[in-house]
Amino acid sequence: MSNISGSSSCSTNVRERGRIVGVPKRCWCGETIVAKTSKSDHNPNRRYLRCVYAAGNKLMNDNHVFKWVDDALLDEVETMKEFISETMKEKKMQMELQMELEKKMVMEVEKEIFERIEDVKDEFKSRMNRMIIVLVFGCMIMIGLVKLI
Ligand SMILES: [Zn+2]
């Protein structure tokens, strides 16, 4: 009993010390990682990843890479989930930015159109004023001419 709890706390310690997110590709010592099957009473037939050097020398309680395969895969899934949600968030932000830009562009175009309309109105008004003045003058001259005759 004490042997089982001892080995379990040992593997937990190692896991905490050599904590690697996802599937480890290489140990810190430079060795590659090998997949092994646990033969312990506590985790029978559970697959784990181990530093080749540590596995070859049957090291115990060391800080070379040790990771349960299911944990590693769970990490990978979590990382993937995070990546997907990050990407989605980014996409959403991009879309919002795009929409904001489009809205701004539409507003600017509207403003420009409005300003042009105002310009045209002003020009039209000043032309009308000139025409009215010319007309009034023309009428006065005509009346004067008529009176002269
Ligand atoms: Zn190692």
UniProtKB/TrEMBL annotation:
InterPro entries per UniProt: Znf_GRF (IPR010666)
Transmembrane segments: 131-148
Keyword terms of this UniProt record: Membrane, Metal-binding, Transmembrane, Transmembrane helix, Zinc, Zinc-finger
Domain named GRF-type: residues: 27-72
Origin superkingdom: Eukaryota
Protein name: Uncharacterized protein At4g04775-like
Species whose genome carries this gene: Camelina sativa
Lineage: Eukaryota, Viridiplantae, Streptophyta, Embryophyta, Tracheophyta
